[in-house]
Every structure is written in structure tokens, then in C-alpha cells.
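Limitations

Structures in this collection are predictions, not experimental determinations, and the ligand pose is part of the prediction. Treat each record accordingly. The example that follows, with inosine-5'-diphosphate as the small molecule, is included so readers can see exactly what is and is not provided: the inputs are given verbatim, and the output is the predicted complex.
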Amino acid sequence: MTNANSSAQRTLILVKPDGVRRGLVGEVIARVERKGYKISALRMLSADKSMLETHYAEHKGKPFYEPLMEFMLSGPIVAMIAEGERVIEGFRSLAGATDPTVAAPGSIRGDLARDQGTRVVQNIVHGSDSPESAEREIKIFFPNN
Ligand code: IDP
Ligand code: MG
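Predicted complex:
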């Protein structure tokens, strides 16, 4: 990390295929930037199965795992690294709860997503949940960062 401040963190943010399809990439980026975090890397890509297996290893065997894989393979995604003090917690707060039906209004999921009746929850964004997950996930999408 370029920032020498030891309390600065980085996190992996993904705009999932539903967010890209709905034209919400700019909206997500704008919210991250307006909050004051720095986006230090950004790319659009089509994920492959092995990347997603690593990324979502903790969910293997859960009922929504296969639908989640299919959903994440259903179109391009946008991956970014955001940096700043407590950005992991801060982006999770910007994103809102996993279930968009009850995610707080004002959050990305609360404002922009809802239950679509699908087997996997489509909720526009992913954000790392701990420093360890962040570093592990960043390696998948940005092997050179
Ligand atoms: P998070 O994205 O808020 O961290 P996780 O529990 O890590 O939530 O789950 C990863 C993704 O899997 C969620 O964002 C959502 O798309 C999907 N998901 C999680 N729990 C469920 C569920 O109970 N039913 C359907 N899909 C789910
Ligand atoms: Mg998670």
C-alpha cells in the first residue's frame, strides 16, 4: 500500500452483474468517492469460475452457492480497490445489509436493490469483510497490486 499511515486499509469492491446491467457502476463509484475513499485500482472483467470459487470459498455447500456462481458469471463485473482509514467497515456501511429488502435506505443496497424472487440475492455490490479477506480477495482480481 502506498499510504504509510498504519490505520489506513484497503478493501475489494465488486459491482456485481446486476449493478453493471442496470448502469449503476457510476453511482457506486460516486458514493465511494463522495464518502472520501480513494479508488486506487479499477477494472471491468468477466469473472471465471476458478476466481469465483476462491472468492466465495466460505460459502461452498450453502444452498445459494451454485446460484451465486451462476449469477456472478452472468455478465461483466467491475472490480476496484478502495483505500482509507477503516474503509472495510466504511464500505460495508455504504453497501448496507445483505438482504436488500431490509437494507437501510441511504445505503447502496437499500436505495437501489430489492428482492427479485431469485434463489440468490442480487444486491449490486460486494465488499470485503475483514483485512484478511480484503488481501485475499484483492489478489484474485488484482494480482499485481
Ligand atoms: P455479503 O455480500 O453481504 O458479505 P455474504 O453472506 O458474504 O454477504 O454472501 C455473499 C452473497 O451471497 C451475498 O451478497 C448475496 O448475493 C448472496 N447471499 C448471501 N446469503 C444469501 C441467502 O441467504 N440467500 C440467497 N443469497 C444469499
Ligand atoms: Mg461476504
